[in-house]
Amino acid sequence: MTSTAPASGTAAAADPDADTASDTVADRSAAAPGSSPWQLARRELRRRPAVRVSLCIVLLFVLMAVGAPWLGALGGWSPHEFDKSAVDPYLGGQPLGALGGISPEHWLGVEPVTGRDLYARVVHGAQVSLLIAFAATAIVVLAGTAAGIAAGYFGGRTDTVLSRLMDLTMSFPSLIFMIALLSVAKDVNRIVLMTAVIGIFGWPGIARVVRGQTLSLKHREYVDAARVGGAGPWRILTREILPGVAGPVIAYTTLLIPGMISTEAALSYLGVGVRPPTPSWGQMIAESVAYYETDPMYFVIPSVFLFLAVLAFTLLGDALRDILDPRGGRT
Question: Dihedral (C-alpha) 49, 52, 54, 55: value to the nearest 10 degrees?
Answer without folding.
Answer: 170
